[in-house]
Amino acid sequence: MRNLFQSSLRSTVYLNLVCICIAGLISCQENSQSVSSSSTIGNIKSTTQTPVLIEVIDTAGKELHPDSLITIGKKKEPSVSEVYQWKNHLVLYGAIDDLEGVQQRIRTVYPKAEIKVYQNPFYNFNRKHCSDTTTAKEWDNIILTANLVNDTSLQCEYLDYHATQFEKWPEVSKGFCNASFQQLLVYKNGRQLMLVISIPKGASLDELNPKTTENNPRVDEWNQRMKKYQEGIEGTTKGETWVFLKQLRINN
């Protein structure tokens, strides 16, 4: 299953990306549109905008207590907000209208933490790319994170590679269709990537994921090519790239 997450993906449908390389310095400017969404986030259907992730990081490496973020996640948002954790990282995920207000509440309860926002995903796979466009009524969301390597030329190459992924590597999205993935979003803030995989509620990612490469060797090729562009975030072990964030329970 890990092989799939060595690949991070790129959409030209929702993003115009310009990589400008001058004297070895690369500026990747993302000009994305807000995407109207009628997807299901958790148990509640969202008809507002694409979900947003807000990451809270204890820069001293200490594990943050999640109760305050869970409380913030219960506030009056248009859809359920989900909270995830990996070591000293907490992540709030949901369709959030008052983004600035939520950030202010987070700053109040975590004044010493670093706060990062991920919005306007640069890749958006959905069932419109499948021959069977039917979507499940309810979804479970799985969130992973990794870094791009600390090399600006490789970062630009990586993003450039993904700019035509749907056109030049259609086998990748075909694999997602075969695996019954409902949506796959990839966000970027600096070097850090956030990957959100949505599957039918109650399904097992371990069981669905092998279907992405079943009779589909081009997906294996894609996964191998993408390995050189990605590495683990701070706190991962040697050789570890994508890490899963654990979803925490919110009792609304």
Which structural traits does this protein have?
31% strand; alpha+beta; six-stranded antiparallel β-sheet; EC 5.1.3.32; Rham/fucose_mutarotase; Alpha-Beta Plaits; 252 residues; Carb_Metab_Mutarotase; isomerase
Written overview of the protein:
By secondary structure, this protein is an alpha+beta fold. It has one domain (2-248): Alpha-Beta Plaits, CATH 3.30.70. The chain contains seven helices and 15 strands. It has helices at 67-73, 99-109, 152-163, 165-168, 170-178, 205-208, 217-226, and strands spanning 15-22, 25-32, 40-41, 44-45, 52-57, 82-86, 89-94, 114-118, 123-126, 139-148, 183-189, 192-200, 230-231, 243-244, 246-248. Strands 9, 10, 11, 12, 13 and 14 form a six-stranded antiparallel β-sheet that branches. 35% of the residues are buried. GO terms for molecular function: L-rhamnose mutarotase activity. It comes from Pinibacter soli. Its EC number is 5.1.3.32.
CATH architecture: 2-Layer Sandwich
Number of strands: 15
What portion of the residues fall into strands of 2 or more residues? 25-35%
What oligomeric assembly is this protein in? single chain
As for the number of domains, it is 1
Helix amount: 10-25%
Task: Give a concise summary.
The chain is α+β, with helices and mostly antiparallel strands. It has helices spanning 67-73, 99-109, 152-163, 165-168, 170-178, 205-208, 217-226, and strands at 15-22, 25-32, 40-41, 44-45, 52-57, 82-86, 89-94, 114-118, 123-126, 139-148, 183-189, 192-200, 230-231, 243-244, 246-248. It contains seven helices and 15 strands.
